[in-house]
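Researcher: Here's my situation. A collaborator sent me these components and asked whether they could plausibly form a single complex. I don't have experimental data yet, so a predicted model of the whole assembly would be a useful starting point for our discussion.
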Amino acid sequence: MKFGVLTGGGDCPGLNPAIRAVVRRAAQHGHETLGFLDGWKGLRDDLSRPLSLPDVAEILPRGGTILGSSRTNPFAKEDDAKQVLATIARHRIDGLVAIGGDDTLSAARELHRRGGKVVGVPKTMDNDVAGTDWTFGFHSATAVAVDALERLRDTAGSHHRAIVLEVMGRHAGWVAMATGLAGGADATLVPEEPYDEEALLRHVQHAVTARGYALIVASEGIDLGPRRGAAGAKDEFGHELLGERQVGVEVARRIEKRTGIETRSAQIGHIQRGGAPELFDRILATRLGAYAVDLALAGRFGEVAVLRGPAVAGIPLDEAVGARKVVTPDWLDLLHTFDA
Ligand code: F6P
């Protein structure tokens, strides 16, 4: 067989281990792999590179993706869709592994509907893909945010300030929730809950009274009401670039205005997405990449490799796309146990 592999959507740590796993597992069974460049753009525009064992020999610990990525939607225009199918036929691809988040996997589902032999591997630092316990990229990216919060603790304490850390995560609060929980924030704002300014100010004041400073984590996806959030630019899948709203800046402004406590904000942004994948992500990406090849070898196209408890499994792409996985009430309950 000849495999194709692509990485689409926002990059995250773990993509290179997943690519390596696809190539190694395919080679183990005597099959070759072609890498398509820059996500679905590579299939649309026929951009590819062969991936041999030496090509993936050193990539396990590297962040980003050696194949490049983009937010290209190949089914937005019918002509593009035809080009994707033509590229697959031209290279005689017997099985395509699409590694990506909801958008990339939605495109994979559409390709499957049109007869394409494709399997999926979920990834995203947002951890918002349904049907899998965790997506790789999340643990590594959130560890960076926790590190940032710890650094902010030093400077907030020195200056007796409140500091708001804005983290990514789109419309799911997993990154903010885990950063607040693991970093010991005094208040954490997630999109799953309505913004409650009075409660926020209580937590900030309580923390400042108790120990002289306060740390707040805000997810980029929170809704601060009509006064904030003019629509930002949109990507090809129609998603607003939420970071442009700078909700952390606004939350800091409101805290300072209403409490008189000197307040600063920091937006960590794309720093979260870089760097080496952590242990959990390396292993998850490796398992899912290899399992995706197994799915294809078993003829289980239209499925996506996921983590279910201790095991990896294949589920239909339909179950993984379209339904965002958000932070559940039990996590929120635990999180608020530690509010100041
Ligand atoms: O989906 C991953 C993510 O990092 C989101 O958390 C964030 O909103 C978005 O990508 C940023 O997109 P871009 O890299 O296109 O600026």
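Model: Some features of this prediction you could bring to your collaborator: The pocket of 6-O-phosphono-beta-D-fructofuranose is lined by residues 10, 101, 124-126, 168-170, 220, 235, 241-243, 273 (CB under 6 Å). The chain has a mean pLDDT of 96.
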